[in-house]
Amino acid sequence: MEKRAIAIIGTGYVGLVTAVSLAELGHNVICVDIDKNKLNLLMAGKSPIYEPGLETLLVQNLKSGRLSFTWNHRQAIQNADIIYLAVGTPSLQDGSVDLSYLMEAAKEISLSAHDEIVVVTKSTVPVGTSEIVKKFIEKHAVQPINVHVVSNPEFLREGQALQDTFHADRIVIGADDDVGAKILMELYEPLHLNIIRTDLRSAELIKYASNAFLATKISFINEIANICERLNANIEDVARGMGSDSRIGTQFLKAGIGYGGSCFPKDTNALMQIAGNLSHQFELLEAVIHVNNRQQSLLFEKAKTRFAKLKHLKIALLGLSFKPNTDDLRESPALPLANKLIQDGAKVIAFDPVAYEKGRKLLPDEVKVTDDIRHALQEADLAFIVTDWDVIKDFPLALYEKLMKRPVIFDGRNCFALSEVSQYAIEYHSIGRQSIYRLKEVSLKRQTMKQKTVSSINFLTT
Ligand SMILES: NC(=O)C1=CN([C@@H]2O[C@H](COP(=O)(O)OP(=O)(O)OC[C@H]3O[C@@H](n4cnc5c(N)ncnc54)[C@H](O)[C@@H]3O)[C@@H](O)[C@H]2O)C=CC1
Ligand SMILES: O=C(O)[C@H]1O[C@H](OP(=O)(O)OP(=O)(O)OC[C@H]2O[C@@H](n3ccc(=O)[nH]c3=O)[C@H](O)[C@@H]2O)[C@H](O)[C@@H](O)[C@@H]1O
User: Fold this and answer.
1) Region(s) of the chain under CATH 3.40.50.720
2) Within 13 Å and on the Cβ side, how many CA atoms surround 35?
């Protein structure tokens, strides 16, 4: 295997995971970023993101000398024969993709690269962008250059990024010429994974189509959950029954508070824009996005129906990250929920085992933030579960019952089996399942017992 000199522009999730995995395969990898704070951490062997296993590989590869970091684009690019673009491609106001970071990175390549290079678009970009990048670099290059551009979209999930990289279901390599495609296929060959070779545009579309399809599965199951609630059926059983059909599959059928994160909301909106620009109204995707927006307010609406007023209630908001095992709060359903609760005059105390620092910066000032679940639940009038962190799922229901002033739980992730909850004096509202009102039942029973005791005392004293 030829040892390659690889430059990676952008050290976010995707850039970092790509960097450590290519260094693990024995290549020389240099990463460049414009964020000096991030680079200082990385150079010191500290991962700026919470991603299981990442820091260990970072330290190992820094020590071996195969991995390095710089803020100087020229230093990263001038000797590289493969250059990855892994910068962010966030949404603009209208839902279309902001390509300014990507084009800045392309400009840096044109200033420092020379001879023959392979430019790989790892960032998720609208169809046709890789061609634009190639033309841009060739047009603005200050030295003679031959650019082979390859689209190699990323499919990792946050929280299990390394597993998804080393054991990916597929690697997509899209190119309109064979030179770059062949080099990338050789690069990934030692991973022994399923490689799908396509043209440039198809590769770019595979990424959006995949994310949009997964988002569709989630909105679909959430709609079935809404029907379950009205029919007294149980969404967990329905999803299990559906998912056992191998044509449907069990994954991404977990009903909940709606999808969040840095990609599904952004990429579904982008695909809507892409279709719209082609005069095609993507009605199915429009519905998927609409259902997700509605689903994110569902727990709040349920709480408003249950309690006429949330004002002055002490509310524990459990989980801030958009899913467990990450400290990423981008598009987390916890953020709009916290804002709504504050607007309604509730006293909110938010808990997250990892994302609490980031949460403190993003939540309204009125929200207290803690990394201690007991502290959040103490004397709370109700609790919202937003993220299914193990520490939340495994926290004993007996303690929810004991610590809370009034143990009413709105669970957006179906963390507990109904049979388990019904053993406690807890009122429990979840997604796509019947609500449990044991709180009333048990306290009534307690009241009756108290009354009985009082009357027997009265009897004894008369
Ligand atoms: N986060 C994820 O799980 C996944 C993300 N993607 C896609 O990958 C791309 C990157 O996503 P993330 O890693 O989450 O982004 P991120 O926002 O975490 O990181 C991007 C990095 O690029 C840096 N950057 C911006 N302009 C630069 C420039 N001119 N030169 C050097 N560095 C520059 C930023 O400072 C930042 O550190 C996006 O297109 C995203 O849609 C794809 C699959 C998974
Ligand atoms: O393009 C991307 O950035 C990535 O987007 C997702 O990965 P990620 O956002 O890290 O997380 P997921 O595990 O897919 O979850 C996304 C959201 O859907 C929600 N979800 C997921 C699965 C499910 O069954 N139900 C459900 O509500 C999660 O809670 C979360 O809010 C995709 O799964 C990755 O393949 C893709 O590379």
Assistant:
1) 5-198, 293-445
2) 12
Give percent above pLDDT 70 in the chain. Answer: 95
CA of 266 to the centre of ligand 1 (A): 13
The atom of ligand 2 lying closest to the CA of 260 is 31
Residues of the chain with CATH 1.10.1040.10: 208-292
263 is catalytic: yes
Tokens matching residue 331: 């598009």
Query: Which residue do the tokens 């307690």 mark?
Result: 446
Structural fold of domain 208-292: N-(1-d-carboxylethyl)-l-norvaline Dehydrogenase; domain 2 (1.10.1040)
Ligand 2 contacts CB of residue 331 (under 6 A): no
- Please report the atom of ligand 2 found closest to the CA of residue 388: 29
Q: How far is CA 126 from CA 99, 139, 206, in A?
A: 9, 21, 11
Nearest residue to 266 (alpha-carbon basis) of 330, 322, 361: 330
Interface confidence: ipTM more than 0.85: yes
**CA-nearest residue, atom 17 of ligand 1:** 88
State the pLDDT confidence band at 439, using cuts at 50, 70 and 90.
confident
Best probe residue, ligand 2, of 164, 220, 240, 263 (max atoms within 8 Å of C-beta) = 263
